[in-house]
Design goal:
The chain contains three helices and 13 strands. With 216 residues, it is an alpha+beta fold.
Length: 216
């Protein structure tokens, strides 16, 4: 089942649970994330390496019915088909990762290529998706702004408490800063469809994790 399928399934479950046609604008899936910005030996940044750990409810839905050789244990191979379908479905959502380079007012959007090195692992009830998003064209960083969030706010991304963001192979003098979302945006009463469309389609931007990297 794809990520879109999971989201629809969870949406139906929430509506059935509360017996309402509308819900407060809040997430239904929670992800704890870590990210690495990967640099090449020539000092260019080549991509972003993500690890996303899903909440227990999502994980339970995700692995339900999957064949397994050992009860309660899923190998990387047993999860490979699920990893592929999830990666393919993430393309529609731009992988919830948005990058711009340059000074404010003159920033240029940086596009990503197809994800590589993706896989799922499952441990103690936790399901984690690992993947690398390569930039279509590596570039020298002056002031890079990277945001990780779901515009619909159906999914809540929280960066991990320990080592949430790392610079892998960055040139000397590069500095990184992380601004976590302030959970203070006003709630709105929205239908489930409004999470993915309409004038509130970018509601989740108020809860974006904002990473900036500056290099000399």
């Amino acid at each position: 089942m794809s990520m879109r399928g999971f989201l629809r399934l969870l949406s139906v479950a929430v509506a059935a649970l509360f017996g309402a046609s509308a819900a407060q604008a809040h997430p239904h899936v929670w992800i704890t994330a870590t990210s690495q910005l990967v640099f090449a030996p020539d000092g260019t940044v080549t991509g972003v390496r993500h690890a996303w750990t899903f909440d227990e409810m999502f994980a339970a839905y995700a692995v339900q019915g999957l064949p397994q050789q050992t009860k309660g244990v899923y190998t990387r191979e047993e999860l490979s088909a699920l990893a592929q379908t999830n990666i393919e479905s993430l393309k529609e959502y731009a992988y919830f990762t948005f990058a711009r380079e340059g000074e404010v007012g003159g920033q240029k959007k940086q596009k990503f290529g197809e994800p590589v090195d993706y896989y799922l692992d499952y441990k103690d009830g936790s399901l984690t998706l690992h993947f690398t998003l390569p930039f279509r064209a590596p570039f020298k960083v002056t002031k890079l702004a990277l945001e990780v969030f779901d515009p619909s706010y159906f999914i809540d991304f929280q960066m991990a408490k320990d080592n949430p963001v790392q610079l892998a192979g960055a040139p000397a003098g590069c500095r990184m800063n992380l601004v976590r979302p302030a959970d203070s945006a006003p709630q709105q009463t929205l239908s489930e469809a409004d999470f993915m469309s309409g004038q509130n389609a970018n509601y989740g931007a108020m809860f974006a994790n904002k990473i900036t990297v500056e290099c000399p």
